[in-house]
Amino acid sequence: MKWRTAVRESDSAAVRELVAATGFFTDEEVEVAVELVDETLANGKSSGYEFVFADAPDDSGRLLGYTCFGAIPMTVSSCDLYWIAVAPGKQRSGLGGQLIRESERLAKGLGTTQMFVDTAGREKYAPTRAFYERCGYRKAAVLDDFYAPGDAKVIYAKTL
Ligand SMILES: CC(C)(COP(=O)(O)OP(=O)(O)OC[C@H]1O[C@@H](n2cnc3c(N)ncnc32)[C@H](O)[C@@H]1OP(=O)(O)O)[C@@H](O)C(=O)NCCC(=O)NCCS
Fold first, then answer.
1. Which of 5, 8, 92, 103 could form a disulfide bond with 67, CB atoms 3.0-4.6 angstroms apart?
2. Would the CB of 130 count as within 6 Å of ligand 1?
3. Which domain holds residue 107?
4. What is the mean pLDDT of the chain?
């Protein structure tokens, strides 16, 4: 795997393709993922978003996974993990775990003491919740009917 944190122009399209390919996100959510890349390309670090990209080690250099995280404004040292996605063909081979650990390491280096991540409570997201729990996140809150009637927001947290 080739690791990098710098955002490239090609990441707008690569992130769109990767996030859409997971089949986990609405078109609106895919647009938001791309917006965070575009905002960072336009404004650099002042955008407040940090990234970890994992590119294929072969000639294709295809984006196989990424995270996007950032300090939560108006908190002393809390950070949100906004996005994590691994290409469907590469899931369940440890890449998600590597991405989240590297993001935590970088966030800690920037002074983060607590990492938060939101996910959904519905059945489709059971593997995602299992992933966060396996990575040491604790269920900090459940907001019933948040995304839609019957679809809760589940907030996970981890002390770094
Ligand atoms: C969630 C996601 C990032 C995990 O990445 P991954 O590379 O598949 O995860 P890993 O291989 O590092 O898995 C680490 C551990 O998490 C747990 N886990 C991961 N996927 C799981 C699944 N489908 N079912 C149950 N547990 C799972 C396991 O304990 C796994 O360890 P193991 O394989 O040794 O049992 C990836 O599945 C993904 O992109 N999902 C779709 C998008 C998504 O849900 N993003 C988060 C939105 S909030």
1. 103
2. yes
3. 2-159
4. 97
- In the chain, the number of structural domains is 1
Q: How is the chain split among helix, strand and coil, in percent rounded to 5?
A: 40, 35, 30
What's the CA-to-centroid distance between 46 and ligand 1, angstroms? 31
Query: Residue 77 has what DSSP assignment?
Result: S
pLDDT of amino acid 76: 98
Of 131, 133, 155, 158, the residue with max ligand 1 atoms within 8 A of its CB, to mutate for a pocket test, comes to 131
Check which CATH number belongs to the domain holding 65 and give it.
3.40.630.30
Q: Which residues of the chain register pLDDT less than 50?
A: none
Residue 93 in contact with ligand 1 by CB distance below 6 A: yes
Whether ligand 1 lies within 6 angstroms of the CB of 92 is answered as yes
The model's pTM is 0.97
Q: 134 C-alpha to center of ligand 1: Å? A: 9
User: What's the pLDDT at 117?
Assistant: 98
* Length of the chain as a residue count: 160
